Amino acid sequence: MRLRSCCSPSGLQCLPGLAEAAKHVYVFQRTPSAIGVRGNRPTDPSFAENLAPGWQKARMDNFQSIMLGRPVEVDLTDDGWTHHYALIQNPQRREGMTIDEFIRNAEEVDFAIMEEHRRRIDELVHKPDVAAMLKPYYRYMCKRPCFHDEYFDAYNRDNVTLVDSPAGIDRITDRGPVVDGQQYDVDGIVYGTGFEAEVTPLPRRIGHEIVGRGGITLEQKWADGSATLYGMMSHGFPNMFVLPAPGQQAVVTVNYTQLAEVGAEFVAGAVALLEQRGIRVFDVNADAEADWIQQIVDTHRDASAVMSACTPSRLNNEGDPGGIRARDTNYGPRFGDFFAYRDLLEGWLAAGEFDGLDLR
């Protein structure tokens, strides 16, 4: 069987297995990914015996601290994410350093990380022409980084062909993909095209209409940008919660499971409080929503000067970073402040006063 696969986080995960099973695999790559060491290794059976209560939360918090550039005593995750982000988020500072010196130092750190990625490809991929096509050529934070231990070795197999296709696939016929005018005959296609990310409005990601009071849909209300309280409720849509998400007036977490957990705990706690008080209907107060939107706008930091030099991706609005609306960002600068956001939600529940809601 001859297969075709896209190169993406999904594509790199499936390539090693496909290469072992298929007669031939063509990988069509638009932009090479920055793929670091995953560092998978056996877990000592005694690991679970020494875990203290709350270990998982402590581990997630430790990881998130490193992602936000906060100091930690020990790196509990100890993987590619934490190694590189610790450097990216904490470039060397010294007393008297000017802003230009700080920026130059940060760029040098970024370049060193990317050089490390490129050297790794030279070490692992035995075909120089293929290695050259696999090397990322942009800043580390331009695209979502990937981590894998077996991906590059797959290109040393005779049954794997990397097709450099920066302009993408021309079309697909009944025989397979056509790239730059050349037909590739395949028996199957594996699409590694990703998913609807935060650059896609929530109503479209949901896949169906949500209709609020007065027949207004959520898509209509959010036509000019997100409008929420805490990124989870919206005026005119009573008794509705949505989980927090990047670019939705909440925060960004590389480990989305942690953010989903925080959101779920808030929803469960809020519903329990509403039931205890016998409240049947709640809606976001319009003034409270406006205040929250203003907080998001006030803390937004325009990164278009840096991100405009990047290749198109979800991180720069597919090549249009200036088109990112301030209200479609996060609670706090850049990725947002996860810990302040969690404290805010937990404080709201602890107060039990339903601040920002109209009740009946």
Automatic annotation (TrEMBL):
Keywords: FAD, Flavoprotein, NADP, Oxidoreductase. InterPro entries: FAD-binding_Monooxygenases, FAD/NAD-bd_sf. Its cofactor is FAD. One of its GO terms (molecular function) is oxidoreductase activity, acting on paired donors, with incorporation or reduction of molecular oxygen, NAD(P)H as one donor, and incorporation of one atom of oxygen. Belongs to the FAD-binding monooxygenase family. This is Monooxygenase. It comes from Mycolicibacterium insubricum.
